[in-house]
Amino acid sequence: MDGTLFDGRPIESLSLIDAVMPDVVQTRQQAYRDKLAQQQAAAAAAAAAATNQQGSAKNGENTANGEENGAHTIANNHTDMMEVDGDVEIPPNKAVVLRGHESEVFICAWNPVSDLLASGSGDSTARIWNLSENSTSGSTQLVLRHCIREGGQDVPSNKDVTSLDWNSEGTLLATGSYDGFARIWTKDGNLASTLGQHKGPIFALKWNKKGNFILSAGVDKTTIIWDAHTGEAKQQFPFHSAPALDVDWQSNNTFASCSTDMCIHVCKLGQDRPIKTFQGHTNEVNAIKWDPTGNLLASCSDDMTLKIWSMKQDNCVHDLQAHNKEIYTIKWSPTGPGTNNPNANLMLASASFDSTVRLWDVDRGICIHTLTKHQEPVYSVAFSPDGRYLASGSFDKCVHIWNTQTGALVHSYRGTGGIFEVCWNAAGDKVGASASDGSVCVLDLRK
């Protein structure tokens, strides 16, 4: 990478809505560019810095793992079933690097029922990689080219694919692109439908659990519920006063959305106004997630706070302040009531540009672990299906895997590009990661 993230694609090719409302798209693109420039500058100093790096605790909290001088150490009495010979570094023979994308890979997601990994890139493609044991020729890839109609023929959209989501049955993949279209593909890579009503880039999209609706959020300030069978827009919700950044279903017909307008709306299909609005953040709200029961909604913001909301009240239940830079994303653990792991405690993970990951006990409103191994902004966190492990990915090119109970570092992998996304397969034995240099890696965590 030469630091020009959108290489080969002139900024003038952005759509009209980007020109009218350039702040969000440009600031997000600039953030990616800045990170790449930082990454290259840091590479030169990395060797010297590594020897001086101290894993210092913030705010007097215990630093998980007690690492010193950046050494990968784990407590001698730590006998974890996924530990590799007492060493946290994942050996090269346990990491598969998938190459094919021609630009940064923003997102990746495992199929919920098979070892197919989908990835979305700045090269205007999504790809489906087959990593199952019985795949004959190693890891095969399907290329899902995102095209638009021009002059009666299909031409590449030249826009980033930045969001994707599998339906719960694993039969269909939805993708969202900066060309303004959402698309539905079969798992064999065939385009099933194109969903066009947004005016400008799509920032997020999600299937509902039932699989009959897809929800999308766009720079055009709206969210849309789509009928997955017909490809028609069921309802467009024009309630935000600025670009909508994330959406999450609470039930099969109710969802929350967040925006750079600092507001969170909860909306229901058929209702022509939000059924609830949460206000309290003082900067753009980057991500929202309902807990496994759908009772609590977590949100994170550039205001450096994490807030927990309930439909039963207007003010937040918890205002969690510990990070000292923007919080980019959050994830709930798949534990507690309403999950496959009902006897384990519910946790929330937050990933921040302050280079830390935090694990929270939401019932008590306290931070239980601060994970301080990363050296650069953390863009992604993901819990294993049993909730025992957390993967984190950062622009320091590292994927770390942590024990959620102890906060100990269990595995570490250094890739070749800044990590945008990490995700676990359904079996909980592989982690996928997508990177800024166009690579996608798969870490095999079986002994």
Topology summary:
Layout: H1 16-20, H2 22-52, E1 95-98, E2 105-110, E3 116-121, E4 125-130, E5 140-145, E6 147-150, E7 153-156, E8 161-166, E9 172-177, E10 181-186, E11 191-196, E12 202-207, E13 213-218, E14 223-227, E15 233-237, E16 244-249, E17 254-259, E18 263-268, E19 276-279, E20 285-290, E21 296-301, E22 305-310, E23 318-321, E24 327-332, E25 348-352, E26 357-361, E27 366-371, E28 378-383, E29 389-394, E30 398-403, E31 409-414, E32 419-424, E33 430-435, E34 440-444
Antiparallel strand pairs: 1-34, 2-3, 3-4, 4-5, 6-7, 8-9, 9-10, 10-11, 12-13, 13-14, 14-15, 16-17, 17-18, 18-19, 20-21, 21-22, 22-23, 24-25, 25-26, 26-27, 28-29, 29-30, 30-31, 32-33, 33-34
Please characterize this protein's 3D structure.
This protein has two helices and 34 strands. The strands form nine sheets. A four-stranded antiparallel sheet has the order 1-34-33-32, with no helix packed on it. A four-stranded antiparallel sheet has the order 2-3-4-5, with no helix packed on it. It has a four-stranded antiparallel sheet with strand order 8-9-10-11, with no helix packed on it. With 447 residues, it is mainly beta. Mean pLDDT is 86; it is low at 1-22 and 47-86. The protein has one domain (76-444): Methylamine Dehydrogenase, Chain H (7 Propeller). Residues 57-68 have a biased composition (Low complexity).
